[in-house]
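stage 2 :: seqdesign
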């Protein structure tokens, strides 16, 4: 499983979890710490302005430990409406394109797959990621217009 954090300028962090591994709250908390460090390195100055974090309602994301670390590191959490996969940009934007790119390819091991994933995202320019977030804005506006019904 790959956990990918990204913004309008591109990929911030990719973390790969081994197969058949459970995702405890501590794992999610460690990812938030890594994300903070990655933003500090890759997006100088953005931490001072504050960062918004959007992720789904998975139990591990809502664990007390995860929420405490999000608050500790100064991220502002954007609430994700329940049962709204159409508002998860990684699902409708990021992973769909990745799956299309990797379809039909056989990999010798996990490292080859990880390299292919990273090469895929490195091949995209900044406007691609910005467009994904603009699409989120349009989807959120539609969601608001229909009072939260599925779009």
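stage 2 :: out
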């Amino acid at each position: 499983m790959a956990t990918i954090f990204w913004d309008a300028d591109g990929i911030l962090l990719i973390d790969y979890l081994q197969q058949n591994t459970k995702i405890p709250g501590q794992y999610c908390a460690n990812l938030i710490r890594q994300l903070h460090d990655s933003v500090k390195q890759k997006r100088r100055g953005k931490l001072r302005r504050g960062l918004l974090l959007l992720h789904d309602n998975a139990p591990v994301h809502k664990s007390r430990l995860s929420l405490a670390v999000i608050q500790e590191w100064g991220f502002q959490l954007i609430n994700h409406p329940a049962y709204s996969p159409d508002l998860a940009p990684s699902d409708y934007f990021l992973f769909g394109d990745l799956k299309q790119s990797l379809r039909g390819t056989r990999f010798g091991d996990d490292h080859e797959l990880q390299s292919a994933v990273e090469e895929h995202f490195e091949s995209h320019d900044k406007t691609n990621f910005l467009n994904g977030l603009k699409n989120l804005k349009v989807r959120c506006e539609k969601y608001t217009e229909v009072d939260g019904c599925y779009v």
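stage 3 :: structure notes
- The first strand starts at residue 2 and ends at 7.
- The helical segments are 25-42, 46-49, 64-72, 89-102, 110-122, 126-145.
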